[in-house]
Amino acid sequence: MGKYVNSNLTAGEHIVYEATYHWIIFLSLKAVLTLFISPLITFHTSEFAITNKRIIMKVGLIRRRTMELNIPKVESVGVDQSIPGRILGYGSISVVGTGGTKETFDKISKPLEFRKAFQQFQS
């Protein structure tokens, strides 16, 4: 896993599931116009993890967007997959926390496995 997640783990906390962006992020006009540098940076600077205590998500190199929620404070993890997403194995993950906090991350690889890993630690 990347530096951000590892540097923010607390005592007794360990990673139980890691996710990445799907390779589909390389198939866009933005990717072609930037000679595939933009999606490459996005792929390598993004971290999605579930630990035994919380969900941690970080995207961005210069402009960073993070989301960290303790597992008891998460109301649900939603998965949205289009038909191509179901066929190729990618989708959007929406994490809803108590108080109405909602964060959505698109084009995540194996989103159903991410939700399943969360549900195992929620109970």
Notable characteristics:
single chain, 123 residues, alpha+beta, PH-domain like, 4-stranded antiparallel beta sheet, 3-stranded antiparallel beta sheet, 5 helices, 7 strands, globular
Order of helices and strands: HEHHEEEEHEEH
**Architecture per CATH nomenclature, i.e. the level-2 architecture:** Roll
**Topology-level CATH name:** PH-domain like
Count of helical regions = 5
Using the coordinates above, name the CATH class: Mainly Beta
Q: Largest sheet at a glance?
A: 4 strands, antiparallel
Portion of residues within helices = 25-40%
Whole-number mean pLDDT: 94
Question: Low-confidence spans: pLDDT under 50, at least 5 residues?
Answer: none
Estimated structural class: alpha+beta
What would you call the shape?
globular
| Rg (C-alpha, Å) | 15 Å
The number of strands is 7
How many angstroms separate the termini? 25 Å
- Strands across the major sheet, in which order? 1-2-3-4
**β content, as a range?**
35-45%
Task: Specify the CATH homologous superfamily.
Answer: Pleckstrin-homology domain (PH domain)/Phosphotyrosine-binding domain (PTB)
Number of domains: 1
